[in-house]
Design brief:
single chain; alpha+beta; Alpha-Beta Plaits; four-stranded antiparallel β-sheet; 33% strand; globular
């Protein structure tokens, strides 16, 4: 599994749909795409929500990102992420 950061912004029609039920729907969509939600945060500023999600590969992450955007009216930017320790090891610094 690989870790991805999904940073989202509510679209105007998405604001009206904010609910615990929609959160459960998001978790279900992630699971449908073979992913696991590790943590989620609501944020202040230009971005509204940040999810830390594990997926088996980039393809599943992309599919989940699009499915979440379409069904929940949240525009996501999804990026792969590695820990600092993993990065240092990749760069030969660990």
């Amino acid at each position: 599994m690989a870790t991805f950061l999904m940073v989202g912004t509510y679209l105007p029609e998405g604001i009206a749909k904010i609910s615990a039920a929609r959160t459960k729907q998001a978790v279900s969509i992630i699971k449908e795409h073979k992913g696991k939600l590790e943590s989620g945060y609501v944020t202040l500023g230009k971005k509204d929500i940040t999810l830390v999600v594990d997926f088996p590969d980039v393809k599943q992450a992309m599919k989940a990102s699009i499915a979440l955007s379409k069904k929940l009216a949240i525009a996501f930017a999804t990026s792969p992420a590695v820990t600092v320790q993993e990065f240092d090891a990749m760069m030969g610094k660990g």
